Amino acid sequence: MQWKIATYDTLTKEDVYLLLQLRVAVFVLEQNCPYQDVDGLDPVSHHVLGYHEKELLCYSRILPPGKVYENHAAIGRVVVKASARNSGLGSDLMVQSIAACREAYPNHPIKISAQAHLKAFYNALGFVYKNEDYLEDGIPHCAMYLENF
C-alpha cells in the first residue's frame, strides 16, 4: 500500500478525479444518499489517499479546527472501496488519518461523525462515544471523540 497525504494544492488532477469518483461511488450510489459531496471544504483539507499500484482503495480528509467543529480537528469522508473491505484497510486508513491529523494540528482533539453501526470500529481506534446521536443524510450517525494527543 502506498500512502499519500496531501494538501489540496499538492493533489494531482488524477488524485482529485479518483477521490471524487470513490466518494460518489460509495456515499452517493452504494449508500443511495444523494447529497452535495463537493462542499467547498476540500481546498482547506488535508487528504489521505491509499493506493495499491495506481488504484485508489481508500481515502479520508482532515479538516482544521474551527472549520466543522469549533475546538476539534475533524476526520471525514472516510471511505474504502467495496472490493477492498474486510481486509483491515479501514483500520490502516484511520491510523494514517489520525497520524496526519496530529501532525497537521498538534494538541487538538479530533472529532468524527461516525455512521452509528461503526461505533465499535472507531472505539477500537481510541474514539469515545458520548451519547450524541443524529441523522445525517438519512443515515444514523454519532459523534465520537479522540481526546488524547
Can you characterise this structure?
With 149 residues, this protein is α+β, with helices and mostly antiparallel strands. The chain has one domain: 3-Layer(aba) Sandwich (Aminopeptidase). 27% of the residues lie in helices and 36% in strands. It is built from three helices and seven strands, in the order E-H-E-E-E-H-E-H-E-E. The chain has a seven-stranded mixed β-sheet, sandwiched between helices. It is globular.
CATH architecture: 3-Layer(aba) Sandwich
Biggest beta sheet summary: 7 strands, mixed
Q: What number of structural domains do the residues give?
A: 1
Classify the beta-strand content into a percent band.
Answer: 35-45%
Total number of helical segments? Answer: 3
Shape: globular
Q: How many strand elements?
A: 7
Q: What series of H and E elements makes up the topology?
A: EHEEEHEHEE
Radius of gyration: 14 Å
CATH T-level topology = Aminopeptidase
Low-confidence stretches: none
Q: Fraction of residues in helices?
A: 25-40%
Give the name of the CATH superfamily: Gcn5-related N-acetyltransferase (GNAT)
CATH uppermost class:
Alpha Beta
What's the SSE blueprint?
Blueprint (H helix, E strand, L loop, with lengths): L1 E6 L5 H18 L15 E7 L2 E9 L9 E8 L8 H16 L5 E6 L3 H6 L3 E9 L2 E8 L3
Characteristic key phrases:
globular, single chain, 149 residues, Aminopeptidase, 7 strands, seven-stranded mixed β-sheet, alpha+beta, 36% strand
Give a brief description.
This protein has helices at residues 13-30, 89-104, 119-124, and strands at residues 2-7, 46-52, 55-63, 73-80, 110-115, 128-136, 139-146. The chain is of the alpha+beta class and 149 residues long. The model has no long low-confidence stretch (mean pLDDT 95).
